[in-house]
């Protein structure tokens, strides 16, 4: 890829090569549904994370939906969630029949913190869903006991944060219900996919039934009987063997991706220190596997337009949800979310980029900021 091709994309899937053969083999095997390849992927994820159980599903949206159901969230309940997230987080709350209660964020990290979560709690709060924006772990330990005592479950939207750590613990290992995305542009891709980390074996079993239409016998047992039992509600959320085959290759190569994403983010941080109008949203790179690189800039819309004209794949992650038409019933003022929403811009960030690409983006950004400022004089 040339610099111009590479930096014209904001994000892109990254394949190591063996995914092609792995997919072909899964296709040749002729059983595409949930099967032993899916279970092997789950076991490998569990080993990587150091947790007893991982339940794979076909998206993080599905993982969030099931986690809310596992936490007993339903009609009449409120779920505290940042407005600064992908709309899927909010849709999952509505899918569970509950209502979002939007929380404000810290302007430096774009994540909720103990203060903004506490300020959003009401007597109807049943769950809190921090979003690990950019791959950064969100530390709510200070209020964890308090939430527990109130019967409030913490469910992490860790769509960005596979491989990241809180202190020395990998995200997903410290006892919260955690949801990962393995979508096309995430740190690890199955093309489409996701996983949830249950809190105990009983929850794992319930999650496995919910993702497979309420059927609890494993496939191997099912095909040997003339009957099967449906034990309760369920969705068609399982991860196909073909997608799992891609995920297994990606997981085996994950250390290289971790290294690459950290190096790219650090290269941006170095280049951008010279630009005094540009603030970098901090992902705690020493402990995180960065998902994106987001800056805060004045005259954002104009800088964005200039960079797009120069074929730089800038993006905005995300337009806030509390001002979306679909979620307007739950609007409440969120000063920091609203202030940062007009300033944030995501720079091209994906593992095929080089440090040379980063230099190029940084110099175009400098130029675009200069143009925007001179036009404002
Ligand atoms: C990608 C993403 C999701 C949804 O993940 P899917 O696997 O696409 O369903 C949820 N939350 C955030 C923050 C995301 O970036």
UniProtKB/TrEMBL annotation:
Its cofactor is pyridoxal 5'-phosphate. One of its GO terms (molecular function) is transaminase activity. InterPro entries: DegT/StrS_aminotransferase. It comes from the Bacteria. Keywords: Aminotransferase, Pyridoxal phosphate, Transferase. Pfam families: DegT_DnrJ_EryC1. Belongs to the DegT/DnrJ/EryC1 family. PANTHER family: DTDP-4-AMINO-4,6-DIDEOXYGALACTOSE TRANSAMINASE, TRANSAMINASE. This is DegT/DnrJ/EryC1/StrS family aminotransferase. It comes from Nocardia iowensis. The lineage of its organism: Bacteria, Bacillati, Actinomycetota, Actinomycetes, Mycobacteriales.
